Amino acid sequence: MKHRTIAGLLAAGLSLAGAAQAQDSYTVALDGTFAPHAMPKMGGGIEGFNVDLANIIGERLGVEMDIVATQFSGILPGLQAGTYDFVVAPTTITEDRAQNVLFSEGYLNTDYMFVVANDAPEIDSLDGFKDKVIAVNKGAVYDSWARDMADEMGWTVESYGSNTDAVQAVVSGRAFANVAGNTVSAWAAQKNPNIKPSFTYTTGRVWGMPFRKGDEDLRATVESVIECMKIDGTMAELHEKWFGLPPADGSAAVTPVAGFGEPGYEGYQDNGHEPSC
C-alpha cells in the first residue's frame, strides 16, 4: 500500500485548503455503540471502521485525534457549539443537514442489505423477498421503509427490539430475511456463521463527515486525506477488515470526487480541485 509522508500530506492538504491553520490536535465525535463503525473493545476504549478512519487521518496529518464517544443525537449540536472540530460518526448527507453543516465528500454508501439463512437461495432483486417474512429493528428507518413497501411486495414485516433480535429471527426460522444498513448487515453476517449477505437495495445516499459552516479550509485538509485513502487502497482495506467484503466498484469508498464536498448538495465547491495522492 502506498503512503505519502506525513509532512507531504500535511503540506498538500494545507495548500489545497488555502493555507488552513494547522493544529496539534482535533477533537472529533462519534457514536461509540454503532457496530462495526465504533464499539467498545475488550480492556476498554473503542474500535471500529470509523475509529480506524479517524486515527489514520490524524496519522497522515501528523496530529493527535481526540475521539469522543457520545450519543449521536448530541453530536451535530456539539459540532455547532464548537465542542468538536468535526464529526467522524457515519452521517447520511441530506439536503436538510447540508443547510446547517458543511459535508465532506461521501466515503461510504449507506444502502439497505438483506441477510438470509446460509441455506437460502441466492437472490438478486427485491422480487426474491415477495410474500416472505422480513424482520427489522423496531423504529429504525428500515422498519418504516419495509412497511411502506409491504403492499407492493406482499411481505410481512415483523419488528424486534434490536437488530440482533431481528437477525436471530432469521436464524431460528421465524423470518426469511432481516434488512438493515449494509455495513451493519455485513458485520452481522461476518460474525454469525448461520446467516449470509443477500440482496443490497441501493438508496443513492452516502455518509460524509460534517464540519461547521465556514470551516472550508479544514474540510479541504481532511477531505484530501480521505481522497488519498480511496486512491491508495486504504479505504478498501478498512472496508474488508470491518465489513468482511470489498467495496463495490464505483462506490463512494473507492471513488474520489473532484472539488470539495458532495456534488449536488449545499456547500459543495467546484473549484478545480482534482483528487491526487
**What's the rounded overall pLDDT mean?**
91
- The helical percent reads 25-40%
Over the alpha carbons, how many angstroms does the gyration radius reach?
19 Å
Counted by DSSP, the helix tally is: 10
Termini Cα gap? 12 Å
Give the tally of β-strands.
15
The biggest beta sheet is recorded as: 5 strands, mixed
Q: Order of strands across the widest beta sheet?
A: 11-10-12-9-13
User: Which band does the percent of strand residues land in?
Assistant: 15-25%
Structural class category: alpha/beta
The stretches of 5 or more residues where confidence is low (pLDDT under 50) are: 1-21
Order of helices and strands: HEEEHEHEEHEEEEHHEHEHEEEHH
Shape label: globular
